[in-house]
Design a protein that fits this description.
The strands form two sheets. Strands 1-3 form a two-stranded antiparallel sheet. Strands 2-4 form a two-stranded antiparallel ribbon. With 148 residues, it is mainly alpha-helical. The chain has four helices and four strands.
Length: 148
């Protein structure tokens, strides 16, 4: 709890400093730190809902990451985050099997798409952090290019 409070205190203080100074660079740093925290460091639960509808409550850090207790959860969470944004999930493309005499353990298998889902709140926060990150990178590139 103290770590979470320290992160939020730092983000709020940086935001107040950006408001006081009035420079876009401090606002960019504030948004980047918030995005980093939400995507990689915030304490949360796994949030993967599988076939039965039960949601995994194992602890994890970051909205992008799943628990390490169940091996397939990271793959399922990645697929669930990508599903609304692309027509074909990146991990569910069929791979051609290798027929070059490789042992069975080394052949590429056909991957099946995952139909697991994640909690809507986690999806919303992950997307907000990614959008904030993208907007900040674009704004920084425009700001560093200087006046037109």
């Amino acid at each position: 709890m103290a770590r979470r409070l320290a992160w939020w205190t730092g983000v709020v203080l940086l935001g107040v400093a950006a408001l006081y100074v009035g420079t876009w660079r401090l606002w960019a740093l504030t948004v980047l730190l918030w995005s980093l925290y939400e995507l990689c460091f915030c304490p949360t639960t796994c949030g993967i809902a599988t076939g039965g509808g039960a949601v995994c409550r194992n602890a994890t850090h970051g909205r992008l990451f799943a628990c390490t207790h169940v091996p397939g959860h990271q793959r399922s969470k990645t697929d669930a985050l990508w599903r609304p944004t692309v027509r074909h999930e990146p991990g569910s493309r069929p791979r051609l099997p290798q027929s070059d005499g490789a042992p069975a353990a080394h052949r590429r298998a056909r991957l099946t798409p995952s139909r697991a889902s994640i909690a809507p709140r986690q999806r919303l926060m992950a997307y907000a952090a990614v959008i904030g990150l993208a907007v900040t990178v674009v704004q920084t590139a425009v700001g560093l290019a200087g006046p037109w």
